[in-house]
Write a structure and sequence with these properties.
homodimer, alpha+beta, Pnp Oxidase, Chain A, 7-stranded antiparallel sheet, 6 helices
């Protein structure tokens, strides 16, 4: 195996380091976050850090990089309190990835890509049309991360839209059936196949005997 | 599309709700976190919330559920300051998933599964033998999440071990080549195929003209 120490990593070229550290955490979620500013400018941007925080209440978090450069997503969701999370599927990965380009705040990525905005149920922020899963989110709280000036944003699920055939009777959403992709590193997109689902795990019987 | 509102979700059976909300965020990382208590008891547990927070310094976060029940991983990493992150590959998914069973603190999951602990470079916490990527982590800080009493733990990368053939010249780790899996929901494990990598994105030229 190749061994890299903290010192080795610090001494690498910064492109090498961002590729390495972005891919060392494992697979990531592949989402488009949709927002609209108070004065009506739409924004959509790719994020790979959406993480489950809890089911009751239903809470999801995501990480924003430092606000030293303008972050339209952050500005809009702070102004309005709302955003959407939309799942990236195989047929839009190239367009979705292009939303990482730094456009000014008054240029909507919806006009620069084939992605289309969609409004429903009077929700303020735009969804991304045709995504197999679309989630309406309300901003709840944020945590500035001291170690590197990123921000963890926590939001609550207001509405979920799911393509009918993806939702199982027990609430499980089959992402592979929806051709939802997963992100490897900064720029790798991977297709998936569900191998198996496992039951709720209980200790093997002899364990409790041993420890008592 | 099926529409579920916050109220619909709140009214569902709790198993339905945890399946739904755990799978609605998208694909998750599939990791085993290894720790050892001050008095020498090893622990290993499956986590699906390891998230990239930054590359310089190299920081990864993960989420722990409330500490109202004993969490061995949390207790050990707080006591000792160290833990390991090990990637779950296809041949160990069943054993890895079994580490979610609640064993008492003096019963090591290493003795209850085929997973083997491995020590190297005098690092205090155990790695999981044969994992294609193994990361030595140092606890840095934590954030109690008010909205639901979970804890975000932030750690810094001390050492990374990577199977030789997975590491590209530009620092990208090819997780699919290592048969690293990704988690769908609470209990679904999926195999992956890398579709493509994309270049760093810049705005399309006409955008800047429009906004100036």
């Amino acid at each position: 195996m190749i061994k890299l120490t903290a010192k080795d990593i610090a001494n690498k070229h910064h492109i090498y380091r961002i590729n390495l550290i972005n891919s060392c955490s494992g697979y990531k979620s592949a989402n488009l976050i949709g927002t609209k500013s108070e004065d009506g400018f739409e924004n959509v941007a790719v994020f790979s850090s959406v993480t489950h925080f809890g089911s009751n209440p239903p809470l999801l978090g995501f990480v924003l990089r430092p606000t030293t450069v303008l972050r339209n997503t952050y500005k809009n969701l702070k102004e309005t309190g709302f955003y959407t999370i939309n799942h990236i599927h195989e047929s839009i990965i190239s367009e979705a990835h292009h939303t990482s380009a730094k456009y000014p705040g008054d240029v909507s990525e919806f006009t620069k890509t084939c992605l289309e905005s969609e409004y429903k149920s009077d929700f303020y922020a735009p969804f991304v049309n045709n995504c197999p899963i679309q989630i309406a989110m309300k901003y709840e709280e944020e945590y500035p991360i001291k170690a590197n000036d990123t921000i963890l944003v926590i939001g609550s699920v207001q509405e979920i839209y799911i393509k009918d055939e993806l939702l199982s009777n027990d609430g499980f959403i089959d992402l592979a059936k929806g051709k939802v992709v997963t992100i490897n590193g900064l720029d790798g997109y991977a297709a998936t196949n569900l191998i198996d689902r496992f039951e709720y795990q209980r200790p093997k019987k002899d364990a409790l005997k041993e420890s008592s």
